[in-house]
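Possible regression after last week's pipeline update?

I re-ran a chain I had predicted before the update to compare outputs. Posting the input and the new output here so someone can diff against the archived version. Not blocking, just want to make sure nothing changed silently.
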Amino acid sequence: MGKKDIAHKLTVAGLRAAYLSGDTTPHEIIHEIIGRAGRTDDMNIWITPPDLQFIQPYLDRLSALNPLKYPLWGIPFAIKDNIDLAGVPTTAGCAEYAYIPERHAAVVERLIAAGAIPVGKSNLDQFATGLVGTRSPYGEAHNALRPELISGGSSSGSSVAVARGQAAFSLGTDTAGSGRVPAALHGLVGWKPSLGSWPSLGVVPACASLDCVTVMAHTLEDALQIDRVAAGFHPDDPWSRRLPQLEEKLPLHIAVPAEPLVFYGPFADSYRAAWEFSLEALSDMGIPLVPVDTQMFSEAAAILYGGPWVAERWADLGGFIEANPGTAFPVTETVLRSGAAAEYNAASVFQAMHKLQAFKLEARKLLKDAVLVLPTAGGTWTRDQVREDPIAANSLMGLYTNHCNLLDFCAVALPAGEAGENLPFGISVFTPAEEEGRLRGFAKLYSKDDGGKG
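New output (post-update):
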């Protein structure tokens, strides 16, 4: 893999093999990435694009590290621009909010310590508030496969960077689906660990009690490699949890929706057909499919934006919005200000907490020894369509993802073939946090079997 034939698709495993064989070097890869980024300025992938000025020190330190002992030696990665990289501005998609952190976010620090190279800060739906990738004053991120379509969000640039060969993996955040939806729209794997499994220290909060740092990559193997480096309790992070290392095992059954699902957007029929094909592929895995009523998940999801949890966003960002009216992206400010509504009082918060606690118990019983499989998204949109109806289009993108963190689930978005030409379809697999071993076991089997994609 010399410089002239560097693969378009960069993977952790592929780059490690190429480095160890001497086929290429991290310097060649970084120079290629900088060139690729320069040729795709119009796609609005980056807020701080790849540049040797800040990358060079990370390249230089590799000479003192044994690549055999550092699992991410020389691996380039993108960082969503609500996650701190020391010395580089964190904007959260808002220039007026920007600051320059003195320290890396805890997850970034762990990845760099393992030898990884940060190559840039990627575009996002402002303040990580959106699932479409169009809510940024830095420009709408274009879908890497079909530029007229949305990229998904809020980790928009992170997904496009991986899909366009400008990073081997990327960090996103996922409060309502912001790491899984853009992964699905680009045929990537999106790994969302259990709440508190990865530290969120050094991340601009969206909903601090629900925020997760996540990874997007081309393969499950790569995503799990990043998880092995990033996961673990952090003593300085108030949201970090000590979670046990769970044995990987297969689920005893696969829960799927008993009721017909909602599909939307200009490709609704194609998405419906892709879901039906996915169900057939799941039934061929040798694990029983059990239809279940998924109304509970829909009711839990509704609490995120139709209940008092939207006030948590206001609690973290309301001071900035009040002090800087009209500064935020218009639709973002509308969403954030909705958290200040009078009905979201202390009593409403506790009522929602009690309702969610009952849902968590019901979900743990329903998914004991099992996994739940849903479409990651029920459709997609053109960027023009989202501009015409930004709130409704965005809400539909979270139909099958919003419940996840509220119910203390872990999840993985997996490619599941195509709904059309250059139109990836994906499924998401969920388990309660205490069943994460079954999530890994199922995902590995599904990926090995190719999920019916042939």
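Follow-up from reviewer: compared with the archived run. The chain has a mean pLDDT of 95. Marking as no regression found.
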